């Protein structure tokens, strides 16, 4: 199979989310169909991953929105964070409404550790939205 042959697959998306995605597409790139838009998202994720600098010191923030009623999510978030006390400089927790919490973590440390922490937290079921914004400080560290 040639590298650029297309593979079809189906994904399940809540209708409301798909409607919002279509509207965003229409507004930002009117001529782009849904498949092209999803391909762009996949490429963006791959590029973002390539930009990671695991061997360098990074600083950044991790923003999460989650429903604290989801299973034992609060405990799991807490357990993971307690394994990264050297990287978590500060945290801010905002109770948004009856269900949702906004949590912002200020992070600093070796990229590999900071990315690992973000990946673990954002993978938890119940974390609806999450984004890590990071920049290398220009300092290379021994791993
Ligand atoms: Ni809360």
What topology does this entry show?
Elements: H1 15-28, H2 34-50, E1 56-67, H3 73-81, E2 88-95, E3 100-110, H4 111-122, E4 127-140
Antiparallel strand pairs: 1-3, 1-4, 2-3
Bound molecules: nickel (II) ion.
Structure description:
The longest helix is centred in the N-terminal third of the chain and has 17 residues, at 34-50. β2 and β3 (100-110) form a beta hairpin. The chain is built from four helices and four strands, in the order ααβαββαβ. The protein folds into two domains: 15-50; 57-136, Alpha-Beta Plaits (2-Layer Sandwich). The chain has helices at 15-28, 34-50, 73-81, 111-122, and strands at 56-67, 88-95, 100-110, 127-140. It has a four-stranded antiparallel sheet, with helices on one face. The model has no long low-confidence stretch (mean pLDDT 91). The chain is α+β, with helices and mostly antiparallel strands and 143 residues long. Nickel (II) ion binds at residues 68, 93, 95, 101.
């Amino acid at each position: 199979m040639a590298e650029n042959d297309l593979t079809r697959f189906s994904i399940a998306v809540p209708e409301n989310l798909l409607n919002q995605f279509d509207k965003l597409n229409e507004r930002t790139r009117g001529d782009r169909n849904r498949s092209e838009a999803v391909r762009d998202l996949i490429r963006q994720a791959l590029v973002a991953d390539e930009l990671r600098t695991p061997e360098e010191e990074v600083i950044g923030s991790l923003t999460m929105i989650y429903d604290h009623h989801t299973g034992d999510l609060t405990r799991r978030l807490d357990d993971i964070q307690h394994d990264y006390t050297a990287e978590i400089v500060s945290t801010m927790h905002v109770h948004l409404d009856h269900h949702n919490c906004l949590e912002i973590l200020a992070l600093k440390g070796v990229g590999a550790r900071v990315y690992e922490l973000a990946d673990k937290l954002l993978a938890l079921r119940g974390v609806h939205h999450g984004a890590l914004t990071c920049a290398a400080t220009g300092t290379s560290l021994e791993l």
